[in-house]
Design goal:
The structure is a single chain. The protein has 310 residues and is mainly β. It starts with 5 loop residues before the first strand and ends with a strand. The chain is built from no helices and 27 strands. A hairpin with a 2-residue loop joins strand 12 (121-128) and strand 13 (131-135). The strands form 6 sheets. Strands 2-3-4-5-27-26-25 form a 7-stranded mixed beta sheet, with no helix packed on it. It has a 4-stranded antiparallel beta sheet with strand order 1-24-23-22, with no helix packed on it.
Length: 310
């Protein structure tokens, strides 16, 4: 079986990160511009719309659900805050007692997860019905929460004293379960769908990097020309999104469709696509109606088109 990734580059000089994908197929993330300004975006059927909260210099969109509700973080003069955007309404999230707050994912029920930082380190949280609930793996030095599905299952990673690497975890029905990829020195879990398929990164030991695990089957994957790959999410249709770095240090977003019941049997299953010629643009300077064409260099055929909206 052959699987071909799509490169997603809506970028300035530095790069693009795709942070989330909804069950309706919308993707969201951030672009880093040449002046180090960071802008969020949402891509719905190729319509890419910039997302800048309160016109601040840094906005990152980390989650999107099927209703195109967005979560993420923004930075202003007072620090870093989480946010939820529903339609045109933006609600700031500041966890109680936190120095900074990051919202990382939202499910179709509107439940939000994220992380906050205080003088004691990093903690996870669940935000629902206007209330924060702390998520801390028992005995952990720090807890990092990255994903939530529609069953309320939550995934992330944690660190313990004396350990160099991290451990993945699944939180469900009040119970934390450690998720460690066999042979790897460090495991980070970044996303989960309603079937319980998870994605993440396993390194050190026999860990080979980006992985997808479904029904007990663990498969690693990489991308052509990548020096590192970080999957950030997976939806119910088996679409994985994330980002990767190339040998020049540039960051790119990607999407990769896998069979719903698994089937990524080896790294060799990924078919290296022909190089893509990517038009570099600045979201902050582009006008509505600007069109991006991603072309196959060998055939000159357009393989992906995006339209900028304001």
């Amino acid at each position: 079986m052959s699987l071909s990734p799509e490169i997603i580059d809506v970028r300035g000089i530095v790069g693009t990160s795709v942070e989330a994908v909804s069950n309706a197929g919308a993707m969201a993330g951030a672009t880093v511009q040449s002046n180090v300004a960071v802008h969020g975006f949402i891509d719905v059927n190729g319509q890419i719309t910039p997302v800048d909260v309160a016109n601040q210099g840094v906005t990152i969109v980390s989650g999107v659900n099927k209703s195109d509700q967005l979560v993420g973080s923004y930075t202003d003069a007072s620090g870093t805050h989480g946010f939820v955007r529903v339609g045109a309404t933006v609600t700031t999230l500041d966890a109680p007692g936190a120095i900074s707050t990051l919202a990382t994912a939202i499910n179709d029920r509107g439940q939000v997860v994220g992380n906050d930082f205080d003088r004691n380190g990093e903690h996870g949280f669940l935000y629902a019905n206007g209330q924060f609930m702390a998520l801390n793996v028992p005995g952990a030095l720090s807890t990092d929460v990255e994903g939530i599905n529609n069953q309320g299952q939550i995934v992330g990673s944690y660190m313990v004293s004396g350990s160099i690497g991290s451990h993945g975890f699944l939180y469900a029905n009040g119970t934390y379960t450690t998720v460690d990829i066999p042979g790897a020195a460090s495991t980070t879990v970044t996303g989960i769908n309603d079937s319980g398929t998870i994605v993440g990164v396993a390194t050190g030991g026999t860990g080979k990097g980006a992985f997808v695990e479904t029904a007990g089957q663990i498969d690693y994957f990489t991308l052509p020309g990548a020096t590192s790959v970080v999957p950030e999410g997976i939806n119910n249709q088996g679409l994985i999104v994330g980002s990767y770095s190339d040998s020049s240090g540039n960051d790119h977003g990607f999407s990769l469709q896998i069979p719903l019941m698994g089937g990524v049997s080896a790294l060799s299953d990924l078919v290296p696509p022909a190089p893509l010629a990517v038009q570099t643009i600045s979201l902050s300077q582009s006008s509505a109606g600007s069109v991006l064409h991603f072309q196959n260099v060998e055939t000159a055929s357009v393989v992906q088109t995006a339209v900028i909206t304001q």
